[in-house]
Amino acid sequence: MKEAKNQQLSSAWRERLQALKNVPPVLKIVWESGRYVVALGLFFRIIVSLVPVSTAWVTGLIINNVKAIVDHKEVLSSHLWWLTALEFVLAIAGSVFGRIIDYYDAVLADRYMRHISIRVMDHASQLDLQSYEDPVYYDRLERARVQATDRLGMIQSIGRLFQQTITVISLSVALVYFSPWLLLVLIVCLIPAFMGESHFAFLNYAKNFRQTPVKRELDYLRQVGGSKEAAKELKLFGLSQFLTDRFTSLSNGIFDENIALFRRRLTAVSLLSMLSTTGYYGAYAWAIWETVHGKFDVGTLVFLTASIMNASNNISQMFSTLSSIADQALFLTDLLAFFQMQPSVMSKPDALPAPRPITEGFEFQDVSFSYPGTSRLILNHLNFRLEPGERIALIGQNGQGKTTIVKLITRLYDPTAGRVLLDGVDLRDYKIEDLCREIGVIFQDFMRYEMTAQENIAVGRIEFLNDMERIRSAAEKSLADGVIERLAGGYKQMLGRRFEGGVDLSGGEWQKIALARAYLREAQVLILDEPTAALDARAEYEVFERFNELTVSKMALFISHRFSTVRMAERIIVLEDGCIAEEGSHERLVARGGRYAEMFELQASSYR
Fold first, then answer.
1. Which helix (DSSP H) or strand (DSSP E) does residue 439 occupy?
2. pLDDT (tens digit per residue) in 481-508
């Protein structure tokens, strides 16, 4: 048992030392966030770090001058006042430059926070869609987001360590001049306290790592318990107490674990700090002894006393700061690992531009697909074509692969097996960004941006943000123009309730706004993946009728569970178990009397 514990402790220390390799990449990020701010901050830290030893030396000289005047009745000279003025200047310099350092630290904090937040957002946007569907990725992303901003303390600690190191070096030179043993005693007595701090810092990191999934669940419970979307069900189902109890139980577990570690740390570190205090007073007593026996004068005693005290404090602070840096460097592991994550779906270096115009269309050749982490085939050796000017409807029960086909066409995923071709070329050979510009897609779970109506439409093609002619045209095509006309602020009206003056819309109204995004893209391919689920049957019919009119010369693919709209398609594909069970026009499929006819009759009977 004891051997296993020793091995675990040894492993922990190795991990802490290895974590220090995280510091240089982060320092590079800090430097990129504000070069001149970092340089000026270091310059003033160098000046301030030399103040303690300079002050101690000047104070010693003043004491000796005063003693000579008192003991030997010497004449008060201007030399003493110059020394006093110098000490005053040093005090002022230490104070003023300290404030300047605080100023540059504050400026650097703002610059770093902005820079690292943008980098995290930018990198997250480049990762695969599958990353967002992986709980492990979410844990890493959550830790990366926290580490990106919370590690500001580590950056400031590195600045302090730089300043403390220079101060210790200057004081050490003075102490070694009088006795090398003074510095050695101080360091030896401080090492155990440093080891203790470091050990508990590692335990704190391990605790925080374990608690990440629970903290994420706490954030979710906090969000659900106070969200507008959940308010109705919480009241109707009486869920508030259930969520509160669950939150309380989980948070109590974290609290108890934290308190237990804090108590252990308090006891151990307090005992170890007594040893460092013993080292300081031992060196202090030695200086007094040497002075009493005539080896040092009073000024030297004052200088040594100040130097021993400052050296002891700064060495202790150095160890503490270094421990803090090592502690926080462990937390940077996920941030740097996050930046090292690369998408598997990406453009090749010599990728082709998307064809304009598309002449042959899309072709699925023996395509199979299973989502990462599962072996179940969502698509199983699927073959079909979507040709220019053709409108296809996909139907089938949930989980049969309808949305997956859309994700493969838009290259949010790559097939597990087989190929998806566009004009006879594998989609993997095209530039992803260029391909996306030719496709307009609205999913059922489209975003409701807490922005103006104009911006909500413009996100479909953000370069048209200020092109009101195009935005109005897209709104007219999606029937969103009537919704916007009723808003007090028109296209400048803030939507959603997050910000002051915002107005919320009904589900159907939001969907018309979202549809306008697809029309704004002016893409060659339009895809509607059940975006009208919140509309009533008549409103959905009107939307799809308009969709049919506007996609006469385009490729169109839509998914719907309502057969009144599905029958508008020139070709209907029925998916079952990841394969095409049936395909053809509405009339042909009904006449066949197969699976489609069965589903159509089942839905039609509910309206009779």
1. strand 439-443
2. 888 999 888 999 988 887 788 888 887 7
